[in-house]
């Protein structure tokens, strides 16, 4: 399950240990067996994450359940995930909803958001857009950035709610200001293109850059492309190459294709068939069909030795950075 402690819980109860010693685990077990809800939750967390004890989903579930039954919202939320993933217990979407609702009613923002999505989608519960909107809005109002972004997109597109571009802009901006990279990228594109907001290239550049700096690969690729073409920003090939490379190194196939084309044509960088072939290969592995055509055409111009060198290079690159193939 690998559920991590919420910030709220950490701020309220500073008793969780990471790298727990055997003595700390024994003390935790004693308190948990004596009925202390927080100790029960923390012991469940330890078993969930293999911290100081062997990882054991069934033990994690057991202790989460005990804490949840005493009303601990974070335990209720984690219990919902256990039922959702089938960790230590058979999967049961209805019980997932049941426990998330209990946590949501205690103003647990993550539970509220996830519960809202279940109501919107009719998963584990009868589809109810009003209930979905209620819970996602509640999570957004509690400051959950993911909920704010989701709510903003719903208002922009009229998904389960009456279309309202002002409300959409409000919530997407709130999420962006909280540091949600996806929201920042979305907001930047809206400013660049005047979608639901007055066109403003400076604001567009600000938000897309912020998302790129947070590691959003799509934003990095978009920003790199803009620097190469001068769309909404002065041409800067060094910056363009930097951002497209960053996106490619995170496994974004379109960015990898772009790098391959630049190495194949000698645009911006010295022409290098081996590097081009390597980037085409990686892009194709990540589902980019165009890369396969480029790779096939390039192979006709390469010797068997060059192809072997490119294959060796790709293996070495993936070994050093598994994210090149979209692996985290």
How would you describe the overall organization of this protein?
With 328 residues, the protein is mainly alpha-helical. Among the domains are: 1-106, Tetratricopeptide repeat domain (Serine Threonine Protein Phosphatase 5, Tetratricopeptide repeat); 253-328, no CATH class. The chain has helices at residues 7-12, 22-33, 37-49, 57-69, 73-85, 93-104, 109-121, 129-141, 145-157, 165-177, 181-193, 201-213, 217-229, 237-249, 253-265, 273-285, 289-299, 304-320. Helix 3 runs antiparallel to helix 4, helix 8 packs across helix 9 (145-157) and helix 13 (217-229) packs antiparallel against helix 14 (237-249). The longest helix has 17 residues, at 304-320.
* Cα-atom radius of gyration: 24 Å
CATH superfamily of the domain at 1-106: Tetratricopeptide repeat domain
Portion in helices: 55-70%
Number of strands: 0
The N- and C-terminal alpha carbons lie at a distance of: 16 Å
Largest sheet: none
> Which structural class fits the helix and strand makeup?
mainly alpha
Order of helices and strands: HHHHHHHHHHHHHHHHHH
**Mean pLDDT reading:** 93
Can you tell me the overall shape?
globular
Individual helix count = 18
Look at the structure and give the CATH class of the domain at 1-106: Mainly Alpha
What are the segments in which pLDDT stays under 50 over at least 5 consecutive residues? Answer: 4-15
Remind me, CATH topology of the domain at 1-106? Serine Threonine Protein Phosphatase 5, Tetratricopeptide repeat
Strand content: under 5%
Identify the quaternary structure here.
single chain
The CATH architecture classification of the domain at 1-106 is Alpha Horseshoe
């Amino acid at each position: 399950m690998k559920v991590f402690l919420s910030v709220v819980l950490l701020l309220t109860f500073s008793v969780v240990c990471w790298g727990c010693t055997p003595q700390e685990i024994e003390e935790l077990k004693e308190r948990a067996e004596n009925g202390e809800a927080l100790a029960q939750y923390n012991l469940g967390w330890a078993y969930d994450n293999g911290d100081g004890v062997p990882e054991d989903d069934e033990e994690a579930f057991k202790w989460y359940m005990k804490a949840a039954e005493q009303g601990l919202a974070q335990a209720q939320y984690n219990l919902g995930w256990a039922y959702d993933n089938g960790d230590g217990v058979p999967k049961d979407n209805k019980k997932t909803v049941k426990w998330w609702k209990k946590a949501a009613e205690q103003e647990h923002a993550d539970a509220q958001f996830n519960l809202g999505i279940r109501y919107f989608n009719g998963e584990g519960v009868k589809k109810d857009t009003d209930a979905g909107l209620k819970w996602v809005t509640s999570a957004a109002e509690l400051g959950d950035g993911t909920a704010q972004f989701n709510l903003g997109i719903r208002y922009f597109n009229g998904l389960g709610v009456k279309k309202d571009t002002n409300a959409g802009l409000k919530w997407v901006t709130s999420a962006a200001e909280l540091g949600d990279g996806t929201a920042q990228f979305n907001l930047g594109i809206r400013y660049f293109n005047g979608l639901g907001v007055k066109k403003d290239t400076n604001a567009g550049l600000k938000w897309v850059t912020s998302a790129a700096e947070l590691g959003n690969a799509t934003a990095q690729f978009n920003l790199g492309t803009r620097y190469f073409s001068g769309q909404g920003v002065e041409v800067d090939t060094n910056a363009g190459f930097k951002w497209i490379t960053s996106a490619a190194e995170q496994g974004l196939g379109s960015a990898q294709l772009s790098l391959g084309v630049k190495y194949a044509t000698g645009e911006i960088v010295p022409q290098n068939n081996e590097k081009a072939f390597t980037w085409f290969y990686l892009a194709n592995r990540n589902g980019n069909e165009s890369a396969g055509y480029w790779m096939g055409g390039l192979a006709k111009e390469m010797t068997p030795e060059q192809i072997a060198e490119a294959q060796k290079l790709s293996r070495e690159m993936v070994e050093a950075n598994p994210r090149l193939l979209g692996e985290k």
